[in-house]
Amino acid sequence: MEKMNNEINSRNIFVIRTLIANLAFVELDNGWVLVDAGIPFSGPYILKAAKRKFGEHTAPLAIVLTHGHFDHVGALDFLLSKWNVPVYAHDNELPFLTGKKDYLPPDPTVGGGLLAAISPLYPRRAINLGSKVVALPQNGEIPFMPGWRWIFTPGHTAGHVSLFRDEDRALIAGDVFITVKQESALAVLAQTLEIHGPPAYFTPDWMMAKQSVERITALEPDWAVTGHGKSIGGDFLLNSLKKLLTDFETTEIPHNGKYVH
Which end of the chain has less neighbouring CB within 10 Å, N or C? Predict the structure, then answer.
């Protein structure tokens, strides 16, 4: 299940894929931070990878969530039983992480493909982290991650954020855009590189999603890891983002669907 991408170690960002979703270890001068927490039941794999990279008893300084969908928080219960560390998320995302509000039902009619068709089976109930989850500072800073800032990128969820490091324009995008057609099981299995907006079946606000892609494109990131698909960088990344933004309303926003209008 786990896969460490060694080609990006020079940036001190290590990517692990848990079947259908990515997470990242961000190495810092005084420790490391986990960004997102994979699919359900992936906890032992994540813990094993962390021990291999950082040592048997080296817990992260914190866990930062881009958002709270099941494939980004699936291992939290397991990991928090091993690590006594804070979890950070945007204030708008906290209701979904403290048991107060469930996500809207997915729309299996959009996007096409098997993973879209079976999306009603995916967990969407709020999890309850209680006092373990804390709102990210409103000034854009990320605790324990000097040099990084969070960018508000809603649309896929109300409190979705992406993480950006100005020094080298590295981006941890979450699901604001992805590099695989996530609705297709075959594309996900093959990890076919394609630039897309957020997974269609779980995106309730398409205009806001487009604005978030616009916000990210304006940063001109030099390299990005996304919540789904392969990491990409350089001119290919920026040119792809510009094309995605230009074509967004014709190629990404479904013509019909539960949340299109």
Answer: C
**CATH code of 106's domain:** 3.60.15.10
DSSP sequence for 11-63: GTEEEEEETTEEEEEEEETTEEEEE---STT-HHHHHHHHHHHH-TT---SEE
- HSE, CB side, 13 Å, CA atoms: give it for residue 104: 15
Residue percentage of the chain with pLDDT more than 70: 96
CB 155 within 8 A of CB 173: no
The whole model's pTM is what?
A: 0.95
Number of folded domains in the chain? 1
Q: At what angle do helices 206-218 and 234-247 cross, to 10 degrees?
A: 150
Whether residue 34 is contained in a domain is answered as yes
Q: Which domain holds residue 56?
A: 6-252
